[in-house]
Amino acid sequence: MPVFAVTYAYTDDTARRDEHRPAHKEFLGRLGDQGINLCSGPFGAGESPGALLLIRAGSREQALAHTEDDPFRLRGLVADVTAREWTPVLGRLAGEF
User: Fold this and answer.
1) What are phi and psi of 83, to 5 degrees?
2) How far apart, in whole angstroms, are the C-alpha atoms of residue 13 and residue 22?
3) Which of 2, 63, 77, 91 has the highest count of CB atoms within 10 angstroms of its CB?
4) What is the percentage of the chain residues whose pLDDT exceeds 90?
5) pLDDT tens, position by position, 29-63
6) Could you give the CA distance from residue 6 to residue 82 in angstroms, rounded to a whole number?
7) Strands (E), the chain
């Protein structure tokens, strides 16, 4: 099944993100337990606020649908979300996906 690089661009509402981060992490953890969220995490401190999620899904639409119930998205803390199919080829982790 394909892997999609889903990117979040966060709003500037850091306080609300901090408030809802535990529920956000729990949600993504459940997707991980289901084999959907292969890996995810925020961009570094020097980058625009956001995150990268590697999502296993049958289509781009399905990848985005998997994130619709993310508490960050439900509470309007994600200003923009995109999904691009990604094909891992080289490197230590390529065979893991």
Assistant:
1) -140, 130
2) 16
3) 63
4) 91
5) 999 999 999 999 999 999 999 999 999 999 999 99
6) 5
7) 3-10, 37-42, 50-56, 78-86
